[in-house]
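Many introductory courses stop at the sequence. We go one step further.
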Amino acid sequence: MQLDELEKRLKPFCEAKYGAGAQVSDVGQMPGHAGFAYGFRVRHGGEVQSWFIRLPPPNVNWRGTADVLRQVAVLNALDGTEVPHCSVQWSGDDLQWFGCPYFVVPWLQGDVLRIGPEEWGAELSESQLVDLGQEAMQALAGIHRVDPAKAPYLGKPVPFTDDVLHWDRFYQRAADPHRLEDAPIVRQKLLDNIPADTPVGIFHGDFQTANLFCRQDPPALLAVIDWELTGIGATLNDLGWILTFSDPAAWSGTRGASPKFLDPATLLKLYEDSYGAALPDMNWFRALAAYKFAIISGFNLSLHRRGKRVDDTWEETALSMGSLIDRANELLG
């Protein structure tokens, strides 16, 4: 949606929510959300409040990742817990306002945790990183303890086998298929070793530093954000995901040499301490995460090269496709 059109739509929406005389300003596209999240401010009664609105991508079915009301379901389920998150102020599928479903949450001031070269997170001390890691793992354990019955909109649990087979069609469409030469070996090992007994509940789906929104000074976790991939299923998928993103052995090229958040052993210990129980089959979930992201990288590289979704960063990320598959193979034994 163009910013001028969104501003026109926001004016009657905000007058309906605040009352006559509500003034909308500072409407802008937010970074890191594929262009479908926007910030805006409302002045009413001498006060100014800042908001963040999320809309689905245009010209797609409102299902899966494009169903923004899935995010509303999980954010509402987190209300009343200690998990840092953005509580939903307004949401709905009434098309009179924006022509699509929507939700609005407070516009937080801060930044996602950036630990690359010359980023603010790279300046943090080891103890500050551990403190942030503890907050993140406490938040993750808190998400996983939420009763899935509080979010029935999310549907039934994803079967473990489906979580492996889902990536077949993306594998077939990946660029640089030579980098995925051993992916079928990993796929079969994953299918042959499906965990028999592991926690099932609400999962985030993309739990990594880019979705940890923080205050910078002093550093603290303000909210877990970006819930597009949320669902019900094996909660240890989330832990395997962030461990993979923090595992130097999984990455090549510039990304392999870049600073990592905390090492996997430290993050795993912090999660275990917060969750309060030993975690079965973690190598399987770490391997699944590496397998998934290798294929995701190849698929997104294909989209980039074909001009479908141009993003040069996938050229660098794709250099790790082979190392991610190798790491998954190693973890599976």
